[in-house]
Specification:
alpha+beta, three-stranded antiparallel β-sheet, Aminoglycoside 3'-phosphotransferase, Chain: A, domain 2, about 300 residues, 13 helices, AGP_Transferase, 2 domains, Kinase-like_dom_sf, Aminoglycoside phosphotransferase domain-containing protein, four-stranded antiparallel β-sheet, globular
Length: about 300
Amino acid sequence: MNGQPGVHFNKARRSLASDGHPSYRLSLILRIFKASLALLPGGVRTFMYDMWTKTSPLIYGKIAPSVFRVPFGLVLKRCQGPTVEAEALSFMNTLEGIHTPLLVDSVSEGDKNYLLSTWIEGQWLPIAWDDMTSSDKERLVNDLKHQFDTLRSKTISTTHPICSAAGGPIIDPRLPWLRENPRVFDRCQDFSERVWVGLNLNWNRNTLKPLLRPIIERDDFPIVFSHGDFTPRNIIIPGTLASWRLGHDAVHIIDWEMAGWMPTYWDPLKATFTEWESDTEWTAVVRQIFPESNAELDADWEWRSHSRITIV
């Protein structure tokens, strides 16, 4: 079964790629650079990227421990393992209407794994948030809702396995109990059973179980390609907040390393599972972007608040 999801994924990518083209493309220089990289052995590229990780902080300053600005308007990420994000970006770059970085290269050599993509010049949403007006936030919600609606309309399935963007097993911090035995799920009910665990515990049997069993037993949740880590830190406002207000540029969604084929409720659940209150401003934003998942968000909040199951 482990090989089968990859077959589904590749078929989906081929069929969707023919539907349209991304609204933004690599420049001619980057296309030449990308083609040149493809001619180099993985070991040579890895050595070059090793050198970039050492020189980048001196030239561009520090961004994050594993993220580096590099020449040609690119960003280099040092990954913990063969990156799911490369498969996710490769797929996303075939779709029109969803604004993401463009994949340039990925390489895995031994214990070294690198992802090279375009750098999105702009303002990180957590930094801009307090300066945004209600009109700004309304525009942001409409923009993100349009992008996710577009993504879902282009990838919706009733038969696709629940798996990572690379077709592999689900490994996610929201599901720490799957770490020792990560797996691909052929049925949504089986996956939902692992999302909301502990329902047969004495203190949950008569409270949370009646609330969640109808959701878990649903067999009609569509499976869609999902970001998997949709939070403010993964949203970039292009340019500055002031220039964004004057223009029509869409916001960009970055960091697709947890992407995969998931039930429609997954992105809103992942977007809010670290919120400590049920009525935060960010939760309200998520509810507006994914209004069809309000019931699942309500149930998940009850489970996180009362199940006594710790997500660590």
